[in-house]
Amino acid sequence: MADHSLITYDASITLSDPTLVIGQEFPDVESCRRTLKDIAIALHFDLRIVKSDRSRFIAKCSKEGCPWRVHVAKCPGVPTFSIRTLQGEHTCEGVRNLHHQQASVGWVARSVEARIRENPQYKPKEILQDIRDQHGVAVSYMQAWRGKERSMAALHGTFEEGYRLLPAYCEQIRKTNPGSIASVFAIGQENCFQRLFISYRASIYGFINACRPLLELDRAHLKGKYLGSILCAAAIDADDALFPLAVAIVDVESDENWMWFMSELRKLLGVNTDNMPRLTILSERHKGIVEAVETHFPSACHGFCLRYVSENFRDTFKNTKLVTIFWNAVYALTAVEFESKISEMIEISQDVIPWFQHFPPQLWAVAYFEGVRYGHFMLGVTELLYNWALECHERPIVQMMEHIRHQLTTWFHDRREVCMSMTSILVPSAEKHILEAIADARCYQVLRANEVEFEIVSTERTNIVDIRTRVCSCHRWQIYGLPCAHAAAALISCGQNAHLFAEPCFTVASYRETYSQMINPIPDKSLWNEPGEGTEGGGAKADLVIHAPKIRRPPGRPRKKVLRLENFKRPKRVVQCGRCHLLGHSQKKCTMPI
């Protein structure tokens, strides 16, 4: 097998560097040292430092007998250094393999800094391959990893500095975005980070004044140098896009931290509105979330995310026919239709009965759920949180929150621009639904009972529509908040515009109101108060120095954890032989003689 780590040179060719000349100046001795290292790597020779102090820097080629040598000295009266003597010719053959002593972690960090600024997801494997291709130098995976870590610290600061800056950062949020909530909490005598809660005034205003009264709750685990979890409460705007209301970082996901998060959310909404709407909350309904919602939002309708329920059903039964019937049951509009589908499932497997006891239909089924979801049944915030955790896992906590703020700012700006150009009554997604309902309404016969009640007759069934209370006996109008085909037929028959009978949260006016406020920029951290100079704000005092949490990521590749749902799995079926009637094997594999 060939050795590809060797570089061959013609011994008759001498190496020289035309970029170095006598009299050339450097801002300081460190710049001089870095430049000479870069040249040594580029020309594939080893550099040996003879002398390096505040006034001079002398280096030569490490090969015995090679005359290359440079002498750099400080210029009198100024901080710069200049080359005094230079022997620029090499008579040695240079470094003959890819491993170079000058390719230190610091050199790797400088080499990749520009690329990491553009792409923070630049991987160590990509770094070492690019360095080999571009510089002809081989570095180890650990060198590449540490070089990236050092470069990230130079660009964004260290993880530890991020925690120290949190009180000042919260103070800046409150100053630049009045009415916003930004608070940080520490724990223990060492003031280790425990919790951070941020909600911008623009988001609070948009949710209370224009969004449907629906919140999604979820979390994602952080995999950076210090572990933790990111919690989020998000609403849905008029055009079905995600609208983050509040974000929190906690040292660990726990029942206590969920209780705190929901307490902060309750205070936030209580301060900003006199008439708290009855909320609908969607989550995976883990124990900590359920208890926190019951404590702080006792009147809320707290339902399951349909994705979570359906995946559990699919993994539990692994039966395609059952899953198909299950989805038909999920979207059944009436209790009669739902119970019919349940009966079909029970005929296939009696095991669905205990499953429905673990997942009561009142918490997810369209026919039974009491909350107002307006057709929004699954958590969209889950993917957003995992993206944030992935994109920011190598950034300090302040930089992570700035990344989130920048994304929110972009969303507000872009969606504000979009909605200002709209001329319709309803947003595009609702407009499409209404047009489909109007098209379907043409095949119905309409009988008017009185001023507000109509009988809608079709070949399948008859439905009753009340346009004053906005109710249809098919239940679709109430569940989705938009006129169904029956309602559209009734409204058209009496000369009404069906678009005007959609819920206000679907109008362009509400969409504009949602994004009417702005998330203001935050000054560069060089302009913030240093720890010890601030004023008291929410949570910890601004002059409190907060240290990193003690929970650090362990070294090495994380072990994969398998989520086991024994409580929801069917017990493993025990096989009984039909010949000998013993357990553990089938008749086909029975060894008893006939």
TrEMBL record:
Segments crossing the lipid bilayer: none
Single GO MF annotation: zinc ion binding
Domain of life: Eukaryota
Domain SWIM-type stretches: 454-495
Listed InterPro entries: MULE_transposase_dom (IPR018289), Transposase_MuDR (IPR004332), Znf_PMZ (IPR006564), Znf_SWIM (IPR007527)
Keywords of this entry: Metal-binding, Zinc, Zinc-finger
Keyword Nucleus in record: no
Descriptive protein name: SWIM-type domain-containing protein
Organism, as annotated: Tripterygium wilfordii
Organism classification: Eukaryota, Viridiplantae, Streptophyta, Embryophyta, Tracheophyta
